[in-house]
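TL;DR need structure tokens for one chain.
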Amino acid sequence: MIRKFAIGCLFWISSLPFFAYSEILFTGSSDGIEYRAELVAGGFSVPWAMAFINEHQILITERKGTLKLLDLTDGNTRNIEGVPTVFSEGQGGLLDVALPPGYKKGDWVYFTYSKPLDDSGVTAFARAKLNGTSLDNWHDLLVTTSFSGTTRHFGSRITFDNNGHVFFSVGDRGVRPNGQDLSTHSGSVIRLNLDGSVPKDNPFIGRKNVLPEIWSYGHRNPQGLSYDVNKTRLWLIEHGPRGGDELNLIDAGKNYGWPIISYGKEYWGPLRVGEGTSKEGMEQPVKYYVPSIAPGSLLLYTGDAFPSWQGDLFAGALKLQHLNQIKLNSAGEAVGEERLLTRLKERIRSLVQSPEGLIYLSTDSGKIIRLIPSS
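>> reply
TL;DR here they are.
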């Protein structure tokens, strides 16, 4: 059911109070939990990523190259200075923002963005410190070798393993052979230490003509990445071509097949991409989508606000405009799926879990929406 009216009240979630003035957009249920979707803020320009710096403030990247701070207590939004120039054409721009485990005021904040290079851009990984309404000491930790003449498939999401490592994803940059080329960062997941150095146990250390930062390869355009600390699993969701979006469980050094194998078809005709859907030495997805939902994010839910959702994966769908909920069993197999918020008809770009365990999402139309238990 869709309802539209304003509500101002004091909520208590996990003993943490906050005041919110919001508009209820939708009420629904999933897995025995009744929830409502509330509009928290609007007016953003393709809000690509979000990160909570405390219980009531969210850093929000806008793809055009701006960074904003949303205060949930009063609804005010402030511009954050100190972001470098980004290449904001096509799918490029200011991309992900993420905080390391145990983040506290004054710690590093991590970013991926499209760094301008020769009238195009490359995916870069950087960090800076937030000082009030400005960023200090911005510096690139890795400018990837991902140049192409296209404005497509930059990736890119960031996640941490709670063991001193950070992962981020890079798309194939619209050049299919890059997915199988270990001399480029394109089409790969990268693993670094938090200071940007290369871990000594990365899978391709010492291999000739292979970039040591690469953790996995054979990816098309991975825009969702989430690490399960309890089960030490790295999850990735990526765009396929026409069909064939993939949810993958990522292991060190593994080849995920693009563009040799795919469940998708060519854009120009009813022909499958590559040689087929499987090949020896290439990993199969845990789940694939035909037709494509166009996944733009991935969240492993661990909060207390929605108990029966704990351990579920959520992906924002751009093309099919919904929140995709994936049930997993203990073996990491996808055993169920629900499509939430379809009536909102919004391209869901980013997902983040709040300290209270609520799910916040951003849409390409510029909205920040949260899911909260109806009770």
